[in-house]
Amino acid sequence: MGKSKSQKKKTAVLDSDEDDNSSVSSTSTMRSDKMSVLGTEEVQINKDSLLDLALDALYEKRPAIREKALSSIIDTFNSSLQHEFVEKKCTTLLHQCVNIVKRGTSKEIALASHAIGLLALTAGDGDKAHEIFKESVSPISQALKSGSEPTKISSLLECLAVVTFVGGNDTEETEMSMQIMWQVVHPKLSSNVVATKPSAAVITAVVSAWSFLLTTMTGLKLNPKHWQESISYLSSLLDKDDRSVRIAAGEALALIFEIGSVEKFSGEVKGSIDVSTPEGSKNREGFSRVQGLKGKIINKVRDLSAEAGGKGSAKKDLNSQRNLFRDILEFFEDGYSPENTVKIGGESLKTSSWYQMIQLNFLKRFLGGGFIKHMQENEFLQDVFGFTPKKKHLLDDEYRISSTDKRMYKSPNSVVSKARTQLLNKQRMLSEGRNAGHYAANAGDEDF
């Protein structure tokens, strides 16, 4: 006789290692049986049940099963917004992922980090996102110190950037995350520890994540020395052999000069510096140094915008670099930020500043194939970019939300994210002139 659907659920095979049952408890074995449907096409199962099965499988002892479960969770969160699941089981999924970040393999850590970031983006601005941020920061910081595998490190950095972007409540929390990122390339070392030179992939990930968080910060008045040091470090990266490093550094430098006028890096506007006082003399010196750095950066940017390429250079990558640095050169010389348009479901999402472009590109990379879905249905991201999608008349089988969620989406008083408030304020600041307001970041050898 043929097997029923319920029987098939119990017999489809996720993992062929059946000899390992002796090391697994009866409860774990039951979970393993339920998880057997993952990765097979024998059984039709809705996404809610699949997520429940995947969550159960995170308790498994075998890394291979946990990896498949995490991949399934990531795919599901990418393909549809799981508001009801997050409402009911956010803390459970978060704690399991955090435990994997603490003790898992490099591959598991990379997957769990991505899952935590998706959890935060789905939760949106509010208490849940802040809980995700608070529970994640310390384990991520420790994991960043416990190895140098580029994929793991990059995933941890992306996760830290996303949970801070969504769940960080103030500039102090954002600065803390930026400092953790900075220490990946400039670690605090004890006397018996030798520094490990970070790979190009890790440097690129650090600069990209740091820049992404820098886009959210306004009104900081830190020591201008830190600005000068951040610019000095990033400008040195323009000489690196790796093209991805040069591109990330170029974007970061353009962002810094967009959101903080050069004159105010030195503490005072040029015309108001009183050189007769010790403080005024220091400010004059700082102003002159930053101006000198900018001149060197512009010369290097000009060279990179016309680079001929070298043996084995991928033409696509070379063209991307040239186009980017042409935009940077135009910005430095004429003050024009690049304008870009992305089509999403028939609507246009437009960016007209470096900070918007950096945010958009970072989130596109993080969400991958789920970017369009999230932009169409994720209210938090819509708030960040001021994007209004075309209204959907019918919900497909893959996306069903509760009546409470439907009311939330329709309500004109739905929660407006912190990010939107910050970014709209900065848009106003930028439109009023580049010399309006201080903007700084911590960038010394100990703090970035």
From TrEMBL:
<dbReference type="InterPro" id="IPR007701">
    <property type="entry name" value="Interferon-rel_develop_reg_N"/>
</dbReference>
<dbReference type="InterPro" id="IPR039777">
    <property type="entry name" value="IFRD"/>
</dbReference>
<dbReference type="InterPro" id="IPR011989">
    <property type="entry name" value="ARM-like"/>
</dbReference>
<dbReference type="Pfam" id="PF04836">
    <property type="entry name" value="IFRD_C"/>
</dbReference>
<feature type="compositionally biased region" description="Basic residues">
    <location>
        <begin position="1"/>
        <end position="11"/>
    </location>
</feature>
<feature type="domain" description="Interferon-related developmental regulator C-terminal">
    <location>
        <begin position="378"/>
        <end position="431"/>
    </location>
</feature>
<comment type="similarity">
    <text>Belongs to the IFRD family.</text>
</comment>
<dbReference type="InterPro" id="IPR016024">
    <property type="entry name" value="ARM-type_fold"/>
</dbReference>
<dbReference type="Pfam" id="PF05004">
    <property type="entry name" value="IFRD"/>
</dbReference>
<feature type="domain" description="Interferon-related developmental regulator N-terminal">
    <location>
        <begin position="25"/>
        <end position="333"/>
    </location>
</feature>
<feature type="region of interest" description="Disordered">
    <location>
        <begin position="1"/>
        <end position="35"/>
    </location>
</feature>
<dbReference type="InterPro" id="IPR006921">
    <property type="entry name" value="Interferon-rel_develop_reg_C"/>
</dbReference>
<protein>
    <recommendedName>
        <fullName>Interferon-related developmental regulator 1</fullName>
    </recommendedName>
</protein>
